Amino acid sequence: MNHAAVDVVFRQRDAWNRGDREGYLRECAPDIVYVSSGGVAFGRDALRKTFAEAYPDPLSMGTLTLEVLRVSIAPTQVSLVLRWQVHRAEAPVGGVALVIVQETGGLWVVTHDATVANRE
Question: What whole-number distance in Å separates Cα of residue 82 and Cα of residue 94?
Answer without folding.
Answer: 11
